[in-house]
Amino acid sequence: MGTVIMHSVVSVDGFIADENDDVGPLHEWYFNGDAPITESGDQQYDHSGAGAGFKASRASAEYVRPMWKAIGAIVMGRHLFDLVNGWEGHPPAGDHVVVVSHRPKPEGWHPEASYHFVDDVTTAIDKAQELAGERTVSVNAGEVGSQILTAGLVDEVAMDVVPVIFGSGKRYFGSMEGQHLLEDPHVVIQGDRVLHLRFKVRR
């Protein structure tokens, strides 16, 4: 099975968005360089929202590009799915998406897309690993990610730390309680207005 990585862009005080799900300056580093993260024409859906794709610093692009290519499946919560309408059936990376939700997939929503709706996090990881094979399973941070981490199903925590303080909002680790130990970071890469970190979860 592939590695399960919990991942998101995050403020230095641990937030992935404000109370209104606005990411503010968290994603600005995706556009402050001249090195493309995805190849031109790679994607049918413009995830950048900018019409020109993601162009980061060379250090960030060289880190993100292989990480995204390694992803086989994404696990997300229903809240994010509804916010982005499931990226219209075109995930930013990987070929499959597993949505943790007590509600079924919207009727008639992109039947061609490999999106699977399950109602608990253990089933979500099992399904994602089945779909991803030896490739990485990427888990979105937030409430669902924290539940998966608490269940002992996350292998690594990846954070793209942006130098901004939100003060309040949606936490990277959701409403998680108690301590969870991580190893020292095995990836530390400084980009332009972002610090890329990866930690293995201590077992």
Summarize the structure.
The protein is α/β, with parallel strands linked by helices. The protein has four helices and twelve strands, in the order E-E-E-E-H-E-H-E-E-H-E-H-E-E-E-E.
Topology readout:
Blueprint: E1 4-11, E2 15-17, E3 35-36, E4 55-56, H1 58-70, E5 71-77, H2 78-84, E6 96-100, E7 115-118, H3 121-132, E8 136-140, H4 143-150, E9 156-162, E10 170-171, E11 187-190, E12 195-200
Parallel strand pairs: 1-8, 1-9, 5-6, 5-8, 6-7
Antiparallel strand pairs: 2-10, 3-4, 9-12, 11-12
Describe the model.
20% of the residues lie in helices and 27% in strands. It has 203 residues and is α/β, with parallel strands linked by helices. The strands form three sheets. Strands 7-6-5-8-1-9-12-11 form an eight-stranded mixed β-sheet, sandwiched between helices. It is globular. The model has no long low-confidence stretch (mean pLDDT 94).
Across the major sheet, the strand order is 7-6-5-8-1-9-12-11
Regions with little confidence, pLDDT below 50 for 5+ residues: none
Strand content: 25-35%
Instruction: Tell me, briefly, the overall form.
Output: globular
Rg over alpha carbons: 16 Å
**H-E string:** EEEEHEHEEHEHEEEE
The separation of the N and C termini measures 17 Å
Name a few traits of the molecule.
single chain, 203 residues, 8-stranded mixed sheet, 4 helices
